[in-house]
Amino acid sequence: MTQDTWRWLLAPVRQWRTRRLMARHGPALSYPTAWALITLHSCPQEVPLLCQVLREAGVRQGEGSIVPDDWRLLGARERARRSRWLRRHGCSPVRRLAIDDALIRAVGLTVTDWGPPGSGEG
Length: 122
Hints:
- The protein is mainly alpha-helical.
- Helix content is 58%, strand content 7%.
- A two-stranded parallel ribbon has the order 1-2.
């Protein structure tokens, strides 16, 4: 099978994983960014395709990095949800994908990830 056929066959699985990542991460993660992260996780060699798709989708690409968010800006319910997740899993949903930061920089994605609990407080 060609690579295009594999992409077409696996598209529903990738979409399902993308939606699941968005639900676990919270409202700060957009669909194109979540889709790109899932693609990098499952097929790291797809960097050229990702760059093209993100450009066509109008996603601003820059230097690329993972930026921690500020827990002070979150509501109590979201803070509690994230704290439960971190106690259970040990790291954020994005970090659980174990994507090399160099790949994220290569694509030019800027991802807002959960900072450590209490970040920004003080």
